[in-house]
Amino acid sequence: MSKLGSSDNPLKVAIVGAGPSGFYAADALINSELKVEINLLEKLCAPYGLVRSGVAPDHPLIKKSMEKFALMAEPDEFNYIGNVCVGKDITVDELKETHHAVIITMGAETDRKLGIPGEDIKGSHTATEFVAWYNGHPEYREREFDLSHETAVIIGQGNVAADVARILSKTIDELKFTDISQHALDVLENSKVKNIYIVGRRGPAQGAMTSKELKEFGQLWDCDTFVDPAETVLNKSSEDELSDRNGRVAKKIYELFCNYAEEKKPHTARQFPWTRPYIKPKKCHIQFLRSPVELKGNKKLEKIIFEKNTLSGDPFKQSAKGTGNKEELDAGILFRSIGYRGVPLDGVPFHDAWGVIPNEKGRVVENEVVVPQLYTAGWIKRGPSGIIGTNKACANETIAELLQDLENLDSKKKKLGLKKIYEILDNKKVRYINFIEWEVIDEQEIHNGKPKGKPREKFTYTDEMLAQLT
Ligand code: NAP
Fold first, then answer.
1. Which of 221, 258, 222, 219 lies closest to 238, judged by CA?
2. Ligand 1: which residue has its CA nearest to atom 9?
3. How far is the CA of 159 from the centre of ligand 1 (A)?
4. Given a cut of 90, is residue 266 above it in pLDDT?
5. Distance from the alpha carbon of residue 341 to the mean position of ligand 1, in angstroms
6. Residue 391 structural domain
7. Label partner for 122 (CA 20 to 30 A): which of 1, 113, 193, 281?
8. How far is CA 118 from CA 96, 197, 289, 290, 401, in A?
9. What percent of the chain clears pLDDT 70, i.e. is strictly above it?
10. 336 lines ligand 1 (CB under 6 A)
11. Is residue 268 predicted with pLDDT exceeding 80?
């Protein structure tokens, strides 16, 4: 047989998960010197992972990267196979049998747990559920969020917490021209939430939000943002962190928190100067050094018990320790936004404590031994961190390792690739879609958004999407 990667013997790679790292991995292989066949499998009809169903609707510029990924789908070597659940419709072993290599890029689908009493009480949600729901993810379409109480609490202070808080804080007029799903807009329109708490276990020198996201809290039409000035007082280690050159970003964030701690004057921004000052009806409270220790309520969330924390440890290694001081907050809904977590896939090793696939630079390992043919990239490889572009370097690292392994991947056995995938799926009567079919759905969504002035109105049920193709 000709050399692997030649026209007669193309390198056939299956990629599982069509989020950013899946596209970047496909692109890196297509741009290598080799002749390749790339088969990108995706559980949903729609590609783009968290760019479509994670990025906040009011951040349209970040969503622009979908256009870049669509261009990556153009080469003949690229095949998209949407609406296929790997592990159910086709197994990882079947993909290994039919391809030289399989790359798992399925992201981090669930959230970390707090591990406190009452965590699963009605009204306590994960941020991922809420984010996927307002972004029209079909698996979350039927979730219900009760926004009838005046107080909502978000645990964690990363960018996902910021997204959730903004969606709860914004007016319908601020959201209605975004691609937020109509069902979510309808629920938000009737929201009674007035007080939004974003609660961190550590202090303002350890906030995980980025400055752009934090600044947006100063630009909300109907919501003022508050930080208790007493909570901006730093301990010695935190001061050392901020004066260190590695603490420059954290210092900027800290200063933004301090701005919110200054006395608020009633706003006139939306009013003519001669009218009465405009008191914004919603309040966003950013609080520090608190951990929820119990969620209480009769059948549904009514009260959150917090324990005040103190920080201990060397600069940059400080952890929160409970002081024993408790306080209570009445609330009707809580979102745990303490980091995403990967889920295991049958046939692939999984590090349960870390929620990732164990790997060395993208080569999957089990008990420190490399598993032939299996690779990984993105959040399921390194954990949930970084921006969309971070996945490019991550996928490139994996592909560099894969290309070094070329000799080992050459099984001398013909790999049937796409042809065999189609045969397996046809035998199981799976209605998979290709990229051209996705583009039909995509165009229809854009068309449906036009009368409302939205970039698109997403289909939120798989059946609705498939109905566009008949
Ligand atoms: P994250 O940035 O890791 O933030 C997690 C937050 O949860 C931190 O404040 C962390 O505090 C806290 N936390 C963790 N365990 C906790 C516990 N047991 N109790 C209380 N608090 C706890 O995670 P994320 O917000 O999910 O974001 C994931 C990644 O996506 C990040 O890289 C983020 O920047 C990115 N993202 C970017 C954008 C954007 O660019 N606009 C939007 C969304 C997400 P500690 O610091 O104390 O651990």
1. 258
2. 157
3. 6
4. no
5. 11
6. 11-109+342-432
7. 281
8. 43, 19, 21, 17, 45
9. 97
10. no
11. no
CATH of residue 186: 3.50.50.60
User: Is 443 among the domain residues?
Assistant: no
Domain boundary among 316, 339, 362: 339
Q: In the prediction, which pLDDT does 33 show?
A: 92
Asked whether residue 272 carries a pLDDT value surpassing 70, the answer given is no
Question: pLDDT tier at 411 (50, 70, 90 boundaries)?
Answer: confident
Mean pLDDT of 381-399: 95
Confidence band of 182 (pLDDT split at 50, 70, 90): very high
* Residue 193, phi then psi, degrees to nearest 5: -65, 125
Last residue of a domain, one of 311, 339, 367: 339
Is the Cβ–Cβ distance between 74 and 190 less than 8 Å? no
Both 335 and 379 in one domain: the answer is no
Ligand 1 in reach of 57 Cβ (< 6 A)? no
pLDDT surpasses 80 at 269: no
Res. 28: pLDDT tops 60: yes
Using a 6 Å cutoff on CB, does residue 339 contact ligand 1? yes
Is the domain of 102 the same as that of 140?
A: no
Read off the CATH number of the domain in which 363 is found.
3.40.50.720
Quick one: pLDDT at residue 434? Answer: 98
Asked if 131 contacts 180 with a C-beta cutoff of 8 angstroms, the reply is no
| Total domain count, the chain | 2
Q: What are phi and psi of 336, to 5 degrees?
A: -90, 115
Pinpoint the alpha helices (H) of 309-452: 379-382, 390-404, 406-409, 417-427, 435-449
* Residue 378 alpha carbon to ligand 1 centre in Å: 16
Atom of ligand 1 nearest to the CA of 157: 9
Residues 199 and 224 in one domain: yes
